[in-house]
Amino acid sequence: MNRRPILPLLTIIIALGLAGCASNQNLRSTDGTTWQPATEAPTASDSAKADRLWQVFERYEGTPYRYGGTSASGFDCSGFITTAFDEALGRRLPRTTSQMLAAGDVVGRDQLRAGDLVFFRIKGKDQHAGIYMGDDSFIHSSTSIGVTRSSLNGYYWRGRFSQARRFD
Question: Domains in the chain: how many in total?
Answer without folding.
Answer: 1
